[in-house]
Amino acid sequence: MKRNRKIIGKITVQIAIFSAIASIFFVLSYYFNYFNLLVEAVNNDYFYISLTLSLSLLSVLLIFYSVYNVIKIYYQHIQIEEDNLEIKKAKSEIYYVFDSMLGMIYITDLGCRVNWANNSLIAIDKDVIGKQIGDLFHYNNNNTQQNIVNQVLISGKVERSVVYYPSNTLFKTETYIEHRAIPIKDDGTIISIVVISDNITGQIQLSEARQRLSLMVSASKDAIFVIDIHKHITSWNKGAEEIFGYLSGEIIGQPVTILDHLVNFNILTTIFDIDRIIETKTITNTENVEINGLNFYRIVDFTVYPFFDYIGSVIGISAIVRDRTETVKAKQALELSEIQMRKLALHLDAIREEERKEIAFIIHDDLGYALSSIKMDIAWLRRNIDKMTKSNIEERTNDMLKLVDLTIQNVKRLSSNLRPSILDHFGLIAAIEEQSREFQRRTGIRCKVNISPNDDINVPDNIRTPLFRIFQEAQTNITRYAKASRVDVNISYDNELFVLEIVDNGVGIPKDKINSIDSFGLLGIREKSKSIGGTIFINSEKDKGTTIRVELKLKM
Predict the structure, then answer these.
(1) What is each CA distance from 360 to 112, 368, 369, 544, in whole angstroms?
(2) Cα separation of 137 and 116, whole Å?
(3) Which tops the pLDDT comparison, 290 or 55?
(4) C-alpha angle with apex 490: 485 to 495, nearest 5 degrees?
(5) Going by C-beta distance under 8 Å and a sequence separation of 6 or more, which residues neighbour residue 104?
(6) Average of per-residue pLDDT values in the chain
(7) 3-class DSSP state for residue 273?
(8) Which of 119, 120, 125 is nearest to 137 (CA)?
(9) Where is pLDDT greater, at 328 or 419?
(10) Which domain holds residue 456?
(11) Which of 63-72, 279-288, 336-345: highest mean pLDDT?
């Protein structure tokens, strides 16, 4: 409208100028109608003639110029009208585009009042036209939009802000909206502002989910990595660095077959068979895969997940590799322990049978013979006592007493072999000392017991027997295999730590026998130590002897 008024004013001025020039020319022509009269009027003064002619010519030129300007202004006006029509058409097209967009778009005046809104915004708030932008979406604390509009008015540039809207607004749920304020200018002056508001809740939630997933992947001890359909590694977490020994910077971009020096090639290519994965689109698990590094060995499980694009085509593979080395070792150790326990149980059964056999032999051969002899002597005395002299009776009874003494010794020996009474009456230290003397007497191997502090260790009843049996088993092994000439038994107690150590100078135990499931003596020592919460150490060197050491946390 302003431009139209300016054009009308210019045309009016040009018409006024044209009319004034025409009037002047008319007056001059009227008063100087004939050239002869003009010449005569100025007394043949050619200066005035020239002046008059010049003014006449100038008037004609001005008339032509005025006509030209009127025509020019007219066509300019037509062009402006056409431009206005194009602008209106362009605005209509822009509004149509705005209406077809999913985002909320509205236009405000400089007073921050909404004077146009697209269908997306009207669908949420049908009364949006005429509202102040601070009142939009029924959010009382919505100062952010006002602020970015103010920033646009100051900077003259596009401004952006993300606003959180709680569930008590028109959005009904917690929503994040990104507002972009764009200044609309005319001749460099801001005349209105377009605000585009997009719901980016999904993007923010996706970003947060990706961030959480990234943190979980980074913190995971499992190896997690991704390969594309060309079998190139595209991501590699800390767990993968730990399990495979490659840093992410070294392996990203490399083909997955770079791992073939760690994992069997055939197994690796089977796990990452892209054609099979694309065809089946299923999750696959491969257990107990061996990883053989230069300085490490691991047993792992591979779980391979295909992931898809929006049309369901496989675009890559995510692999999770879990280190099960300790679990597998524990399982193997458990299985080995079960085998050892079964064999130990059979061995103990055999020992018990041997002990029963020995006890039966002693009872039958020694005690049975002695009791039978005593019975026969008593019967003989009963029949012949009246016929015997005093000296004969004394001789016979002395023989019977000797036989009774021998029987008592056999009973004591049998009882001591089953369980030495000194262990119950005088404690562990006295029993070990007595057993060491008996061991030295029976085998001829020097056996010395060292106690620290001297004779001041009182071991509780519940652990006396296991410790004594450990000591007995060690002596049995020395007798059978060590070929030793000297045995030192060291017993100490300090800072609540009890130590029983048996050291010999024999030929030593072969390395493969120390942990063999068939070494029943050592296996029995270990089990007895575990049963009382002790720790067993067995060290042996060829021709340098063996040390068996039991450590036990103990309060006395």
Answers:
(1) 113, 10, 12, 40
(2) 15
(3) 290
(4) 165
(5) 117, 118, 120, 121, 124, 177, 196, 197, 198, 199
(6) 81
(7) coil
(8) 125
(9) 328
(10) 420-553
(11) 279-288
Evaluated on CA atoms 155, 159, 164, 169, the torsion sign reads: positive
Strand pairing report for 486-494 and 446-452: parallel
Q: What are the tens digits of pLDDT across the range 74-124?
A: 777 787 787 778 777 777 777 777 777 788 888 888 888 889 888 888 888
Q: How many domains does the chain contain in total?
A: 5
Using pLDDT thresholds of 50, 70 and 90, give the confidence band for residue 291.
very high
Q: For residues 473 and 490, what is the distance between their CA atoms, to the nearest angstrom?
A: 16
Q: Choose the final residue of a domain: 30, 55, 87.
A: 87
353 and 461 together in one domain: no
pLDDT bin (cut points 50, 70, 90) of residue 224 is very high
Task: Tell me: do 296 and 384 sit in the same domain.
Answer: no
pTM for the structure as a whole: 0.47
Best-predicted range by mean pLDDT among 54-58, 220-224, 382-386, 392-396?
220-224
The amino acid occupying position 161 is S
Residues 6+ apart with CB under 8 A from 218: 237, 238
Question: Of 431, 429, 434, which Cα lies nearest the Cα of 453?
Answer: 429
C-alpha–C-alpha distance, residues 151 and 182, integer Å: 11
The single-letter DSSP state of residue 130 is T
Q: Are 535 and 529 in contact (CB under 8 A)?
A: yes
Burial of 32 (0-12, 13-18, 19+ CB in 10 A): middle
Nearest to 326 by CA among 303, 300, 292, 295: 300
Pair (69, 132) in one structural domain: no
CA–CA distance, 472 with 491 (Å, rounded to integer): 15
Kindly report the CATH number assigned to the domain that includes residue 253: 3.30.450.20
Query: What is the reported pLDDT for 272?
Result: 92
Q: Give the tokens for residue 547.
A: 């040390």
Angular region, 450: left φ>0, alpha ψ -120 to 50, beta rest: beta
